[in-house]
Design a protein that fits this description.
Layout lengths: L2 H7 L3 H11 L7 E7 L4 H14 L3 E5 L4 H9 L5 E4 L5 H9 L4 E15 L9 E2 H8 L21 E5 L4 H11 L10 E3 L2 H9 L4 E6 H6 L5 E2 L2 E2 L4 E2 L3 H5 L7 E9 H4 L2 H20 L7 H14 L2
Parallel strand pairs: 1-2, 1-3, 5-10, 6-7, 6-8
Antiparallel strand pairs: 3-12, 4-8, 4-9, 4-12, 10-11
Helix pairs in contact: 2-12, 3-12, 4-5, 12-13
C-alpha cells in the first residue's frame, strides 16, 4: 500500500472502529478471500482489506490488479470470490457465468471520473474537446504531434499513455470517446498498473494519458488534469463535478461483484458487509467520491437478501 494512502487511514480509524466489533462472530473468522480485477478500484478494496484484517487476523485477503476484463475471466472461472470492476459486467461475461452455473451480485461502491492528464510543464493545453480526444485516440488516428490536434498547439511529438485492453477504464473511455468499447489506436504505452502511467506522463513533457481520478488526486503535484469540453463548456474533474455529473461523459460508478457461493463463506460475507459499512469513510481517504449513505445501506440489504 502506498505510504501516502496508508497515512490517510489513520484519520478514519476512530470512525470505523465501531463497526469492527460487529464483524467478529462468536467464532473467530478464518480462511482466505481472493479478489482481482480493476486497478482503478484496487485502492478502495485494498484499504478495506487492510482495515478488515486488523480485527480478523486469521483471514488472509489477497487483492490483484489484472484489470476489469481479466478479473471477470477469473470470476467466471470460479477462481476468485470477488471481482473489482470499473465498469458494468458485459453480456458475454454474464453468459459465461451462467454457463458455469455461477450466480453473482453487483454492488456499486463509489463514483470515479476518468481523468486526462498532461505533464505540469505543458502550458498550452487549456482543455480538450471530445472531438479532439477522438481525433487522438480513434483506431485509425494518424496524430503524431500536438499541432495535429489543434492549430496553435506546438509541433511537438505527442506521447500517449493509457490502460491496457483488459481494463474497464479502457472500455469505458473508448465507448464514450470513440463510440464503441475497445475501439482505440494501439500505438501507445499501455499498462494495467495506473502507477506506471503516472510515471510515464510525469516523465515526459509532451505526454497525454488517462486513468481514474484517484490516481490523479494522489499524484497531482506531478500531473495536471485537463478540462474536458463535451459541447457545454470545459469542466475540470473534481469531487463536486464528478458527483453532480457535470464532468460528463467521463464520470461513472465503480463496483465489486461477489458470487453467491462466496457469500456462503462467513469470512467473505463479513468482508463484504464490512466493505459497505465503512466504504463511505475509506472511499474518501483514497481519493474517490463516496455514494450516498442510503446507497450503501441499499447494498447491505441486497447482500443480506442474496446470501439467503
Amino acid at each position: 500500500m502506498n505510504k501516502k494512502l496508508m497515512g490517510g487511514f489513520l484519520a478514519v480509524t476512530a470512525f470505523i472502529a465501531f463497526s469492527a466489533a460487529s464483524q467478529v462472530s462468536a467464532e473467530p473468522l478464518k480462511g482466505a478471500i481472493s479478489i482481482d480485477g480493476s486497478s482503478t478500484v484496487f485502492p478502495i478494496t485494498e484499504a478495506v482489506a487492510e482495515e478488515f484484517q486488523k480485527t480478523n487476523k486469521d483471514v488472509r485477503v489477497t487483492v490483484g490488479i489484472s484489470g476489469t476484463g481479466g478479473g471477470f475471466k477469473k470470476f467466471g472461472a470460479g477462481e476468485i470470490d470477488i471481482c473489482d470492476a470499473s465498469r458494468k459486467i458485459k453480456s458475454e461475461e454474464v453468459a459465461n457465468l451462467k454457463k458455469n452455473g455461477i450466480e453473482y451480485l453487483e454492488i456499486a461502491v463509489a463514483y470515479d471520473g476518468i481523468t486526462l492528464v498532461v505533464n505540469p510543464k505543458n502550458s498550452f493545453v487549456d482543455k480538450l474537446t471530445l472531438e479532439e480526444l477522438k481525433k487522438i485516440w480513434k483506431p485509425e488516428s494518424d496524430v503524431k504531434t500536438w499541432k495535429q490536434v489543434r492549430a496553435g498547439f506546438p509541433d511537438a511529438p505527442i506521447k500517449l499513455f493509457g490502460p491496457g485492453t483488459d481494463s474497464g477504464t479502457f472500455d469505458y473511455f473508448t465507448e464514450e470517446v470513440n463510440g464503441k468499447a475497445k475501439m482505440s489506436r494501439s500505438d501507445y504505452t499501455k499498462s494495467e498498473d495506473d502507477n506506471v502511467l503516472v510515471t510515464g506522463v510525469s516523465g515526459d513533457q509532451n505526454s497525454l494519458g488517462y486513468f481514474g481520478f484517484a490516481y490523479y488526486k494522489e499524484n497531482q503535484k506531478k500531473l495536471r488534469a485537463v478540462p474536458i469540453d463535451n459541447g457545454k463548456g470545459a469542466v475540470t474533474p473534481s469531487i463536486d463535478t464528478i458527483r453532480n455529473g457535470k464532468y460528463a461523459p467521463l464520470s461513472r460508478e465503480v463496483y465489486i461483484y461477489v458470487t453467491r457461493k462466496a457469500l456462503k463463506k462467513p469470512e467473505v460475507r463479513a468482508f463484504v458487509e464490512y466493505y459497505l459499512s465503512n466504504a463511505e469513510a475509506l472511499v474518501s481517504q483514497v481519493g474517490f467520491i463516496p455514494l450516498k449513505t442510503a446507497e450503501y445501506k441499499k447494498g447491505q440489504t441486497s447482500v443480506a437478501a442474496f446470501a439467503k
